[in-house]
Amino acid sequence: MPAAPRSGEAPGALSAGAPDRGIPGADGVDAFGGVELVGVGFSPGGSAEKWVLSVINGAKKELRVSAYTFTSRPVAAALLRARQRGVDVAVLLHAPAPRETPFIIPFLRGNGIPFRLGNCKGLMHNKFIVADGAVVQTGSYNYTRAAASVNAENVVVLRGAACARVYLREWARLWREAQATAGTPKRRGVFP
After folding, report:
1. What is the spatial distance between Cα 46 and Cα 137, in angstroms, rounded to a whole number?
2. Which of 53, 121, 139, 166 is surrounded by the fewest CB atoms within 10 Å?
3. Sign of the CA dihedral running 79, 9, 154, 4
C-alpha cells in the first residue's frame, strides 16, 4: 500500500482492502464509522493529481465520479483504462459552459462511459470519486490541468464503507436529478 507522496513521488494504486496509514503519525481512524485517512495531496506540485489517479487505478469494480469542471487528460485516460479493465464507470458533470469542458463530453460519449449533466438550481460544485463502495477521494481539486499545475488545491482520500455510502447516496441523488445526455439539446462548442 502506498505511503503519502513525498517530493513528487506517486502513490501506488489504492484498493479497498488492506489498511494504509498514508500520513506518518496519523492513526487513520476517526469517529465516523471507522473512516481511515489514507492520504492527502496538494497542488501545484503534483501530489493531488497522483492521489486522484491512485484511487482510479486502484478501483476493481466501480467508480462514481462527480466533477464540476473536467479538462484533465490524465484523469480521463485513467477512467478509460478502468472501464477497459471491466470497472463500472459513471461520471456526473456540472452542466458546462463550452470553455469549461472542451473535450470531456465527446471523450466520454466516444468511449461509452455513461455520464449526465448536473441539473441543480445552482452549481453542481462537487468534486469527488467513490471507488468500490469503500474509498472516497474528495477536496477542492477540480479534474483540470489548472488544478494540477497552477491552482492551490487539495485532495483527501478516505477509506470506509460508511463514509462511501454517504457519498454514494448523494451521487445517486444527483444522478437521478441530472439530465441524461441522450435527451440533452446540443450546445454550441460542447458537443461534437
Report:
1. 15
2. 121
3. positive
Amino acid at 167: Y
Tens place of pLDDT for every residue, the chain, 192 residues? 344 444 344 455 554 443 344 433 344 444 456 788 999 999 998 799 999 999 999 999 999 999 888 888 999 999 999 999 999 999 998 866 556 566 788 888 899 999 888 776 667 778 999 999 999 999 999 888 888 899 999 999 999 999 999 999 999 988 888 876 543 333 333 322
Three-class secondary structure of residue 156 per DSSP: strand
| Residue ranges of domains in the chain, CATH in brackets | 37-181 (3.30.870.10)
Residue type for position 132: D
Do residues 178 and 170 make contact, with C-beta atoms less than 8 angstroms apart? no
CA distance 66 to 127: 5
